[in-house]
């Protein structure tokens, strides 16, 4: 058994990790726009990336390093820039990363096998000179999680970070922390965001990918804001092992709580979002079909706009289920807004009283829409938000 406690420090909380944010002039008014994460010892690293076929240059560079170094693939430094995605930039985009990494390694002999991540506008080459000039501002001894989490933000309304200390029954402990950004281009195919997780737990390399993938399935792979999958999605897990402690069950649970919190924060921060909604699908033919159905609901623009208007239009829910391609039968379907049943087994329960009750549910900041398909035992819950005027405004002006 184990206990888990929230602590301060975010991505700097684990032993041996440092981070900060600096200004390279990519954002106006000298705002921080480049973050770094540094470990005093080499880290095992595992990543999950976007499913977009046009993945960005930092992802291509990571995969090249992984293939080149194979079993020796470790790092102790990650550089993250905002405002520029370095995506669809061809070979030049990768060369620009290599130039920045080379500059880093020359300035700081402590840095080994540095990696890069980017977020921002697609189709623009990195301002290499600006970024390289800013590297002189890096202090590897800095523990400034606040600057780091602000530096990676783009359209986010607020920064996102969290950290835990996990104490085992014998009083040995390890720490885990993270920073994350994401608000738009969020789709359940990893989700469009950057998330960096650090831990001093001594996690075996062969456990990292398994645990990361399992927890992503129920968290970042289950959220949607607008149904668009970006070119830069990254979840990066760094383990430096400095605590010397590892318990698989405890680590997996702590990682899940980190990823659950941050993924729901991304939905809550959805561009212009006013509500967070859980789409729970039960009694599906299989878990996979439940997932397809739940994600269809969380992605539907018609459903999202109804949620924005607090309109309990259950017909849009039913229509989306029928269009999702899963096995379903109108005579077995049940639809609930929280505990308010509006449709059950072919019968409509949408009189004036129930409509008013359902409308009150939709006025809450968060609630659950449950759909029972009656075709099996499969289940899955996806998370989404409403979609309104502010989303259009933000994305119409994104490059400015």
Automatic annotation (TrEMBL):
Top-level taxon of the source organism: Bacteria
EC number: 2.3.1.35, 2.3.1.1
Protein name according to UniProt: Arginine biosynthesis bifunctional protein ArgJ
Catalytic activity: N(2)-acetyl-L-ornithine + L-glutamate = N-acetyl-L-glutamate + L-ornithine; L-glutamate + acetyl-CoA = N-acetyl-L-glutamate + CoA + H(+)
Residues of the signal peptide: none
Alphabetized PANTHER family for the sequence: ARGININE BIOSYNTHESIS BIFUNCTIONAL PROTEIN ARGJ, ARGININE BIOSYNTHESIS BIFUNCTIONAL PROTEIN ARGJ, MITOCHONDRIAL
Active-site residue list: 192
Subunit composition and interactions: Heterotetramer of two alpha and two beta chains.
Family: Belongs to the ArgJ family.
Annotated metabolic or biological route of this protein: Amino-acid biosynthesis; L-arginine biosynthesis; N(2)-acetyl-L-ornithine from L-glutamate: step 1/4; Amino-acid biosynthesis; L-arginine biosynthesis; L-ornithine and N-acetyl-L-glutamate from L-glutamate and N(2)-acetyl-L-ornithine (cyclic): step 1/1
Site (Cleavage): residue numbering on this chain: 191-192
Binding site for substrate: 154, 181, 192, 271, 395, 400
Function according to Swiss-Prot or TrEMBL: Catalyzes two activities which are involved in the cyclic version of arginine biosynthesis: the synthesis of N-acetylglutamate from glutamate and acetyl-CoA as the acetyl donor, and of ornithine by transacetylation between N(2)-acetylornithine and glutamate.
Residues forming coiled coils: none
Broadest EC class assigned to this enzyme: transferase
């Amino acid at each position: 058994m184990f206990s888990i406690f929230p602590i301060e420090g975010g991505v700097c909380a684990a032993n041996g990790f440092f981070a900060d944010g600096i200004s390279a002039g990519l954002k106006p008014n000298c705002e921080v726009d480049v973050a770094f994460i540094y470990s005093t010892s080499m880290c095992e690293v595992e990543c999950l990336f976007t499913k977009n076929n046009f993945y960005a240059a930092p992802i291509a560079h990571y995969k090249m390093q992984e293939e080149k170094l194979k079993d020796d693939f470790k790092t102790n430094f990650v550089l993250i820039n905002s405002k520029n995605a370095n995506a669809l930039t061809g070979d030049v985009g990768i060369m620009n990363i290599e130039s920045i990494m080379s500059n880093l390694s020359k300035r700081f002999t402590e840095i080994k096998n540095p990696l890069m991540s980017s977020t921002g506008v697609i189709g623009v080459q990195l301002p290499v000179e600006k970024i390289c000039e800013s590297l002189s501002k890096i202090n590897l001894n800095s523990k400034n999680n606040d600057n780091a989490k602000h530096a990676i933000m783009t359209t986010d309304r607020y920064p996102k970070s969290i950290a835990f200390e996990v104490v085992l029954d014998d009083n040995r402990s390890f720490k885990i922390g993270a920073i994350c950004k994401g608000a738009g281009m969020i789709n359940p195919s990893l989700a469009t965001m950057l998330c960096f997780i650090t831990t001093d737990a001594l996690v075996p390399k062969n456990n990292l990918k398994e645990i990361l993938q399992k927890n992503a399935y129920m968290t970042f792979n289950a959220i949607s804001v607008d149904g668009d999958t970006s070119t830069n999605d990254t979840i990066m897990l760094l383990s430096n092992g400095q605590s010397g402690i590892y318990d698989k069950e405890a680590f997996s649970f702590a990682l899940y709580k980190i990823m659950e919190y941050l993924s729901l924060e991304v939905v809550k921060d959805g561009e212009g979002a006013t509500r967070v909604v859980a789409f729970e699908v039960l009694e599906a033919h299989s878990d996979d079909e439940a997932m397809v159905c739940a994600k269809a609901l969380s992605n539907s623009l018609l459903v999202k706009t109804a949620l924005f208007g607090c309109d309990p239009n259950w017909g849009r829910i039913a229509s989306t289920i029928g269009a999702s391609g899963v096995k379903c039968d109108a005579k077995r379907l049940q639809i609930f807004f929280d505990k308010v049943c509006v449709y059950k087994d072919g019968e409509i329960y949408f009189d004036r009283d129930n409509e008013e009750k359902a409308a009150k549910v939709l006025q809450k900041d968060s609630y659950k829409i449950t759909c029972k398909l009656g075709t099996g035992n499969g289940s899955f819950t996806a998370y989404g938000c409403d979609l309104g005027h502010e989303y259009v405004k933000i994305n119409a002006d994104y490059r400015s």
